[in-house]
Amino acid sequence: MAGAGRGSDVTRPPTQGRAWRPPRHQAPSLPLDVVLAIAARTDEPTLVRCAATCADARRRLADDDPANLRARLRLRHADGRFVLPLLRGDLVHVHDSYRRTSDMYMVDARRMRRVTTGGVPLASRDGLLLLRMAKELRVCDPATGRSQAIPLPPESLPVDVRYGKYVLLVGGDGGDDEDDDGGAGAILGQPFQVLLADIELSQHRRYLRFQTFSPARRAWSRCTEIRTPNLQGSRLQQGLGKALVVGGAVHWLCLADTGAYALKLHVRAAQVTVTMLPDSVPHNQYSWWHEPLLATSSAGGSPVVLAVYGNKILAWAQSKQTAKWKPQPQVVVEAEAMLWFLDGAGGTRPSVWTRLELQLEWFAERSGAVLIRMSHEHFFWLDLQSMEIIRWFSDSKIGYGSQHWPYEMNLSDWVPTFNTSTV
């Protein structure tokens, strides 16, 4: 019996308490520094998920020296995935001519706060903002507080300074090479160019004109004129819309007296491609019904045209074989779905006396989000990849005359804020 008792102590589980299990052999875990080093060499979504695992991971990243951090961040392409957390909010410029006030607000997921920039926003891209000041332009990084002044384009330039459209080109978007950025990399952390473009359309002249400014040259370039014979008509009804920068090219929409067009400009090659939009995109001979917007349904993907039609948002895609725009659009979201989201979030529906009019404000290229205005003061963030509403905001201070720009934080600037950001 004694032998049996000794044997039972070794081979049998105890009869009381939790069931006995044989001991597990845990594999040794990697040190956190090694995990972070691996994540910094993968892609944006992986790094974001790594930072979201625990406060210690965020603290280690935040305590890193910014110069070392930027040197480590050699991320691969995001593999067609948008990174929604890089969208920090909606930058709103509210100008009240009656009260002679001009205010700037940042709207994020929880609040609307006044910000001080001292200028009027003209463009935003990849964490940088282009502002028009009283006597100069300024490219700034709100995350770090750094900025760089550039001269206003002289009015003698061929490009119409009053009606031309500004575009920020950052890094591989067509800007200067990193080793020839004229100090821009040292100040803002990444090279950039400023592009100013317009269209000349008449009975005898059809040109896209553009000029660029880069810190390497410290001056505006000569005007480049590119013929656009496929842009038919003799009169421009609506000039260049908001730019989309994707695949190393700049894309715009415009409206002539013969129809609606999409333009694609390769800046370095100075080449322009013009395609005509189908008649199903809502417009008449003189104006858009509601100004459409260019976007992409995946990071770095082909452009799509978004437009409001009645109480829904539609999307027109391009054929990969012919590059022609498909005549039949796809429904992206309807106003009723936005109202259901509003009900579920505890919001108040617009008054029955208010038309449920929709308007497209912007598309965030790194995050894949679209800002949609409903009626007077309701704003919805749409994830274009999933075609679902992800958040909403409302404030009476935002009037119809306000201007909206997406503010997406550059990843190397955003990582040091992990310890104070909601991830």
UniProtKB/TrEMBL annotation:
Residues 1-26 are annotated as: Disordered. Residues 121-389 form the DUF7595 domain. PANTHER family: F-BOX DOMAIN-CONTAINING PROTEIN (PTHR35828:SF23), OS08G0203800 PROTEIN-RELATED (PTHR35828). This is DUF7595 domain-containing protein. It comes from Panicum miliaceum. The lineage of its organism: Eukaryota, Viridiplantae, Streptophyta, Embryophyta, Tracheophyta.
